[in-house]
Amino acid sequence: MPRKGRGGKRRKVCQFCVDRIKQADYKDVNRLNKFLTERGKILPRRITGNCARHQRQVTLAIKRSRQIALMPYTTE
């Protein structure tokens, strides 16, 4: 029996699957910024809750948007 006062951990869900988005778009900078730290590092799956498929797409989209200067590589 679980002890009172200690809530169970909720499983994180993939935001792309919830919103039924098939492909992560590199031009959608507002959505991609949620998957970066303040310093510009890409957050891992275990923190963001993305599924493996969408995490790969997010990583690729962030790298593409950095390449064409929509997103910064680092922050100063």
From TrEMBL:
The keyword Ribosomal protein is assigned to this record: yes
Record keywords, A-Z: Ribonucleoprotein, Ribosomal protein, RNA-binding, rRNA-binding
InterPro entries assigned: Ribosomal_bS18, Ribosomal_bS18_sf
GO MF entry, a single one: small ribosomal subunit rRNA binding
This protein's GO CC annotations: cytosolic small ribosomal subunit
Gene Ontology biological process: translation
Similarity-based family: Belongs to the bacterial ribosomal protein bS18 family.
Assembly, per entry: Part of the 30S ribosomal subunit. Forms a tight heterodimer with protein bS6.
Role according to the record: Binds as a heterodimer with protein bS6 to the central domain of the 16S rRNA, where it helps stabilize the platform of the 30S subunit.
Protein name, UniProt field: Small ribosomal subunit protein bS18
